[in-house]
Amino acid sequence: MRHLPVFLKLRKRKVLVVGGTPRAAAKLALLVAAGARVVVVAPTVCAEIAAAADDGRISHVRRSFEPSDVDGCAVVIAATGLLPVDETVADAARHAGVPVNVPDNAELSTFITPAIIDRDPITVAISSGGASPALTRALRSRIEQSLPARLGHVARFAERFRGTVKSVIGDYASRRRFWDEVIGGPIADAVERGDEPGAAARMLALMNTHVHGSDLPGTVYLVGAGPGDPDLLTLRAIRALQRADVVVHDRLVGDGVLEMARRDAERVYVGKEKSGYTMAQADINALLADRAKAGEIVVRLKGGDPFIFGRGGEELDYLRQRGVDVQVVPGISAAAGCAATAGIPLTHRDLASSVTFVSGHAKDGAPRLDWPVLAQGGQTIVVYMGVTTAHIIAHQLIAHGLAPATPVAVVENGTLPDQRVLTGTLGGLGALVSANGVKAPALIIIGEVVALSNVVAQADAAMNVAV
Ligand SMILES: C[S@@+](CC[C@H](N)C(=O)[O-])C[C@H]1O[C@@H](n2cnc3c(N)ncnc32)[C@H](O)[C@@H]1O
Predict the structure, then answer these.
(1) 3-state SS record for the chain
(2) Best probe residue, ligand 1, of 305, 309, 359 (max atoms within 8 Å of C-beta)
C-alpha cells in the first residue's frame, strides 16, 4: 500500500491553499464542505475563487506566498501550477511538519486526495496511489452506480437508533446480528425508498423480537426481472435479490438473472410451461405468504414487469389481505425491451399517438379484444402471448378495417443472445409466424412505427446498394 487512507477532521481548522487557479478552486469546494477555514494566498484568483471570497466562504490574501503562511495550518495545498513556487510551498510545509498536497505531483506531496463518492455521512474514497487516475475514475463510476442514492439517509436513520439499540441489546454479538439484519433487509430498503415511518415501525418490531424473542414477519418483493438480459435488471431488483432468503421464479426468468441472487438463497421454480402449470397460482400465493410469515425475505421474480400480464396484481392482493408486507419492484416489460433492441419506437409524433398492450391469449378460439378500437390507425398495438393466435388477430384487425399492408414485427427471445426479429405485413402475419417456427416468448408489434425498425432499415439499405 503506497498511502494510508485516513479521513481528516478539518472542521474550523485552518487550511492553506496557495494559488488562484481553477485547479485550486476544484479543491476548495471539498475543503469548505468539510468545514475547514480556507485561506487562499495568491496575487490573483480565478472567478470561482473570487466568488467564494466575495460571499465569505473562504478568505483571500492578495499577495505571493510567504513561508510563515503555513504556520498553524492543518494541511496545505500548493496549486499554483508553477513548479518553483509549488516546490517552495511544499518545502515550507514539510519544514513546519504540515501535510502538503501538490495536485498531480506525488513527489512533492506528503498526502494525496482520493476520488470520492459523497453520500453524506457515507464517504467512499478511492485511490490508485497516483498510478492510474483513469482507473480510479472508472472504479468510482462503477461503485457510484451500485450505491443507492439515499444511502446517506440509511446511515442517518441508523444513527438515530444507535443509542436505543445499544441500551436494549446489551450483548455485542447480538447487536451485530441486529444491525446486519437492519442494513441487509427491508428496513434499509424502506429508508432507501423514502418510507422512514415504515422503516421506524419495523425497527421497533425488530427490537422487540430481539428483546422478547417474538417472531418478525418477512417481506415479499414482487420483482420485475425484465425481458431476459440481466443488464436490464434495475438496481433495486438486484438489491432485493441480494437480500433474498428464497427466490420464487418462473420460466421466463433466465439463469443470468438468477445468478444475481444471494449465493445461498433457496431457488424455487414454479414453472408455467405452455403445456400446463408446474404449480397452480393459488399454491404460489400460499407459498409466498407462508415463507414470509415464517420471517423470510421472499423475492418473487417475474419476467418483464410484475404488473403487466404478470398476475402481480393478484399476488399483491392475496398477500395484502393476509397482512403480509409486500414491496413491488418494477421491471422493464417485454414491450420496452423488444422495441428497444429492434429499434422500433412504440410511439412517434407522425405515426402513432398511442400504444396499446394486449394479450393474445385465448381461452376458446379467439382473444377477447375490442377489435373496432384496435383497428383504428395511428396507433401501435403490442401483442403479448400471441404466437398461437397471430393469424386470428391479423384476420380480426383486417376484418375491422386495418390495412393488410400495415407493418408488423415479431420479436422472439427479445434482448437475449438468440433474439430474432422478423418483419412483414399484417396480411402475412400468420404465415410469418408459422413459416419461421416462432416460439414463445415472442412479442408482436403492429403499426406504422415498425417501418422504422433496424431490420427494415437494414433491408432498405441493402436494396439501395443493390440498386
Ligand atoms: C405472461 S406474459 C409476461 C409479461 C411480462 N410481465 C412483461 O412485462 O413483459 C409472457 C409474454 O411476455 C412476452 N415476453 C416476455 N419476455 C419476452 C422476450 N424476452 N421476448 C419476447 N417476448 C417476451 C411474450 O409475449 C410472452 O408470451
Answers:
(1) CCCCCCCCCCCCCEEEEECCCHHHHHHHHHHHHCCCEEEEECCCCCHHHHHHHHCCCCEEECCCCCHHHHCCCCEEEECCCCHHHHHHHHHHHHHHCCCEECCCCCCCCCCCCCEEEEECCEEEEECCCCCCHHHHHHHHHHHHHHCCCCHHHHHHHHHHHHHHHHHHCCCHHHHHHHHHHHHHCHHHHHHHHCCHHHHHHHHHHHHHHHHHCCCCCCEEEEEECECCCHHHCCHHHHHHHHHCCEEEEECCCCHHHHCCCCCCCEEEEEECECCECCCCHHHHHHHHHHHHHCCCEEEEEECECCCCCCCHHHHHHHHHHCCCEEEEECCCCHHHHHHHHHCCCCCECCCECCEEEEECCCCCCCCCCCHHHHCCCCCEEEEECCCCCHHHHHHHHHHCCCCCCCEEEEEECCCCCCCEEEEEEHHHHHHHHHHCCCCCCEEEEECHHHHHCHHHHHHHHHHHHHC
(2) 309
